[in-house]
Design a protein that fits this description.
Layout lengths: L80 E5 L11 E4 L11 E3 L4 E8 L8 E8 L2 E8 L1 E2 L6 E2 L4 E4 L14 E7 L11 E2 L2 E2 L4 E5 L15 H5 L4 E7 L4 E8 L4 E8 L7 E9 L5 E7 L2 E8 L5 E7 L2 E4 L7
Antiparallel strand pairs: 1-2, 1-13, 2-10, 3-9, 4-5, 4-8, 5-6, 6-10, 7-9, 11-12, 14-15, 15-16, 16-19, 17-18, 17-20, 20-21
Length: 336
């Protein structure tokens, strides 16, 4: 379990910050304009000082006359399971969602964030002292529909860029207004039209409405790509600064990689599939820093399991992974 205050970390956010709700597993129904929703029962936020609580777009896009909602997907790679929460932050006043999946406060920092639907990037900027969004990417999907991705550690797109559904737009982080001490998570919102918070819509993923206030959701974003080549590598999964220092074959099903980041003294493990690509099948990655509890990512994944990270400077590690029935388990090693 994440320590109290870690999942949403909203009590330190600026009051009235537009943050984002999560989606669960109900039958698909395109959201339609609705009256302003009531505040979350656990929210203690006062009305936002900015009536629309919406930073100015950096670029303008033509208006599209349609009320049809895009068929949004979870903003994370195919097969990953994330827990979203809308009720644990004093900054949430509507269907906004904070996403986490790790077991420690900073476990998710650096994880990939994808576009929930195709559109035009209208904001890609650090909001500085303006609000609590920190690094924000906002995508316009046409018909008045927009999605917000806040607190990013890094941004991979620029304002004006056209992005496809499933395109990488940044990484999970903890950026915010100076003085806001939050833990790493993705703040996600879906809006239609103007007039915050009445324009915040319930989030939907893969045709299912998020199970408010809290739900665990498995991503179908860019699944079914198939092909014979996995577009992911151990380094791309673990992130910038990590270098492969060891690996092991998992039969014909894939490989598990041990990486190290000399800049922060952390190890990372990722299991990369070689077969059944684009199809969710069993895969596992784990890392155990000797003397600490083992961290494991296990489930049905389309391309990879992980990343699993741990601070291991000067310590031995056990690491390994599994694809299907084939596993690798290392002895204590790499004790540097």
């Amino acid at each position: 379990m994440r320590p109290r205050g870690v999942l949403t970390a909203g009590f330190a956010l600026l009051v009235g910050l537009a943050t984002g709700p999560v989606a669960a597993s109900a039958a698909w129904a395109a959201p339609t304009p609705a009256p302003s929703p009531s505040p979350s029962p656990t929210s203690t936020a006062a009305p936002a000082p900015d009536e629309n609580n919406d930073p100015d777009n950096q670029v303008d896009v033509p208006e599209v006359s349609t009320l049809a909602a895009p068929k949004f997907q979870l903003p994370f790679p195919c097969g990953q399971k994330w827990t979203g929460k809308s009720s644990g932050s004093s900054a949430h006043t509507s269907y906004e969602i904070d996403f986490n999946r790790g077991s420690t406060a900073e476990a998710d920092k650096g994880d990939t964030v994808l576009a929930a639907a195709a559109g035009t990037v209208v904001i890609s900027a650090h909001q500085g002292s303006v609000n609590g969004y920190g690094n924000l990417v906002k995508i316009d999907h046409g018909g008045g529909w927009q999605t917000y991705y806040a607190h990013l550690n890094s941004r991979s797109v620029s304002a004006g860029a056209q992005v496809a559904q499933g395109a990488k737009i940044g990484t999970v982080g903890r950026t915010s207004k100076p003085g806001n001490n939050i833990s790493s998570h993705l703040h996600y919102e879906v809006r239609q039209g103007s007039g915050y918070p009445g324009n915040v819509r319930k989030a939907t993923f893969n045709g299912a409405t998020f199970g408010y206030p809290t739900a665990a959701v498995t991503s179908n974003n860019k699944c079914g790509g198939g092909g014979s080549t996995n577009p992911h590598t151990g380094q791309s999964v673990c992130g910038s600064g990590y270098k492969v220092i060891d690996s092991a074959a998992l039969g014909s099903g894939g490989n598990v990689y041990l990486l190290y980041n000399a800049g922060n003294g952390s190890n990372c493990v990722a299991t990369i599939k070689k077969t059944s690509l684009g199809k969710a099948t069993a895969a596992t990655a784990y890392l155990e820093v000797v003397g600490k509890p083992r961290a494991t990512d296990s489930g049905s994944y389309a391309y990879y399991a992980g990343p699993v990270r741990g601070s291991a400077a000067g310590k031995c590690v056990k690491w390994g992974g599994k694809v299907g029935a084939t596993a690798y388990n290392s002895p204590p090693e790499h004790c540097g």
